[in-house]
Design brief:
Structural class: alpha/beta
CATH architecture of the largest domain: 3-Layer(aba) Sandwich
Mean pLDDT: 96
Order of helices and strands: HHEHEHEHEHEEEEEHHHEEEHHEH
Strand content: 5-15%
Largest sheet: 7 strands, mixed
Number of helices: 12
Radius of gyration: 21 Å
Strand order of the largest sheet: 1-9-8-5-4-2-3
CATH superfamily of the largest domain: Type I PLP-dependent aspartate aminotransferase-like (Major domain)
CATH class of the largest domain: Alpha Beta
Length: 380
């Protein structure tokens, strides 16, 4: 009996030669020739990441959640401040605000799940201190520079949630180098993974030093003595994780290139299916999508659970992050007092994401596409 191939949503990929090199470096540390934490690999990972993004400073963290929390704290976001966040994003984007004693204000998203600029402008009050944009599934929205200009004019911090967007760029500027700070995720499903982990990017020396102090429990940076000048936390990464990150960073461009090739094949396969809409591509600027996920939109509501079960028969996984939306999460409902997010709720009910990772081949994409098209033609 043949085993059914599994088409997962994400699947970390390490070439055999890279695995051998990683194990060699691990062995070297375990034999006492290196540190387990706070060693040269973490320092090099930050340096190489800074070069790749094109920013001036990078601070590695234990998670993207930690990166968001530290960023807000370093920007002095605190009690009763308001931070505008898109309603369609992971829970941590909002929880980081609350953990800094600030108030998340939920904003509509457009049909590409980017923050809606018009709604954003209407939500700004005298209490607003920052805006968090999320490069959802890897796409940087076309009007990001208008949002940045708006933030500058109104003395607001612009924070990029780049959890999905390592390798994305617009107008030759990479995600994480547009706003005041960028927050990345290296979770196991991401384009570059260290299992768990994150990174904060910026171009401010003062901000970067503050973040570095906070992530090291508040220690005084560049002091010869163990003096603590801030109330911080522990957001360090291990040497083992940094080694994983360093090796993948060397080939990150090939990772993004492969994902774009796979996405174009999906686009080609679905181009004539009337019930489907492809993700809008930006044409005003040179835009590279990292394709953390491949999104398919539907022109009408469908039974996604039925689709999920039907595709599972063929070993194909699908999902639709993130559902329910933030303002529908039990712990966050109290922050949503007016009924203005209906458009976002509609968009969120009419999309799915298909498998997207570097272990997939064009033949795999064709198989997944064929099975989905068959189910859609048969039932819709």
């Amino acid at each position: 009996m043949l085993l059914l191939k599994k088409y997962r949503m994400a699947d970390p990929y390490f070439p055999k030669k890279e695995i051998r090199n990683i194990l060699r470096d691990y062995k070297n540390i375990l034999e006492g020739n290196g540190l387990l934490s706070m060693g040269k690999n973490v320092i090099n990972f930050e340096k190489e990441f800074t070069k790749y993004i094109g920013c001036k400073f990078s601070n590695v963290t234990a998670s993207c959640t930690g990166a968001l929390e530290l960023t807000l704290k370093a920007l002095n976001i605190s009690y009763n401040d308001e931070v505008i966040v898109p309603c369609q994003t992971f829970f941590a984007t909002a929880s980081a605000v609350i953990r800094n004693n600030a108030i998340p204000v939920f904003c509509n998203v457009d049909k590409n799940f980017s923050i809606d600029f018009q709604n954003l402008k209407s939500l700004v009050t005298r209490k607003t201190k920052a805006i968090i944009v999320v490069h959802f599934a890897g796409l940087i929205q076309e009007n990001i520079f208008e949002i940045k200009e708006f933030c500058v004019r109104n003395n607001l911090f612009l924070i990029e949630d780049c959890a999905h967007a390592l390798g994305s760029s617009i107008n030759n500027i990479k995600a994480g180098n547009i706003g005041d700070a960028g927050c990345f995720s290296f979770y196991s499903t991401k384009n570059l993974t260290t299992g768990e982990g994150g990174m904060i990017t910026s171009n401010s020396h003062r901000f970067s030093n503050f973040v570095r102090s906070l992530k090291l429990r508040g220690i005084k940076i560049n002091s010869s003595k163990e003096i603590f000048v801030n109330i911080g936390t522990n957001q360090r990464l291990t040497e083992f994780q940094a080694i994983l990150g360093l090796y993948q960073l060397k080939r990150v461009q090939s990772i993004i290139k492969k994902r774009n090739i796979l996405a174009k094949r999906y686009d080609f396969n679905f181009r004539k299916i009337k019930i489907l809409e492809l993700l809008d591509s930006n044409i005003k600027y040179n835009n590279i999508n990292s394709y953390w996920r491949y999104i398919l939109r539907f022109k009408k509501k469908i039974n996604r659970n039925f689709l999920k079960k039907s595709l599972k028969i063929y070993g194909i996984d699908i999902d639709w992050p993130y559902f329910p939306l933030l303002h529908k999460q039990p712990i966050l409902k109290k922050f949503y007092k007016k009924n203005y997010l209906n458009t976002s709720e509609l968009y969120a009910s009419k999309f799915i994401c298909l498998p997207m990772h570097n272990n997939l081949s064009l033949q795999d994409i064709d198989f997944i596409s064929k099975k989905l098209i068959y189910i859609l033609n048969k039932n819709y």
